[in-house]
Specification:
The chain has 98 residues and is an all-alpha fold. Helix content is 88%, strand content 0%.
């Protein structure tokens, strides 16, 4: 394995662990704003994955890039749908009180 791959894998595992630990401690009241932020970050991940996939450095990087594009894109779309549904629920509960 190339040295760059090992370093990249280390950074990926560390980022995943830190992200999990940070999001686990978020108050439930902040989940909707946090979901909107993660949707924006997923859009950046999709662009980076497309760049990695398009370089064609090796078959492994192309396959992993394609998997990253699919995973990040589906996560981004799902996040937008969930955020939209949560915001509609808040709007409906606000109208009933008035």
């Amino acid at each position: 394995m190339p040295a760059g791959f090992t370093e990249s894998l280390y950074v990926f595992v560390l980022a995943g662990f830190l992200g999990f630990e940070l999001i686990k401690r978020v108050s439930p009241l902040l989940h909707t704003p946090l979901m909107s932020l993660t949707n924006a970050l997923d859009a950046i991940v999709v662009i980076a994955a497309i760049i990695i996939c398009g370089r064609h450095e090796s078959n492994l990087s192309t396959i992993l890039g394609a998997i990253a594009v699919a995973a990040a894109f589906s996560n981004m779309i799902g996040g937008f749908l969930i955020t939209d549904r949560m915001l509609r629920m808040f709007k409906l509960s606000g109208r009933k009180k008035q």
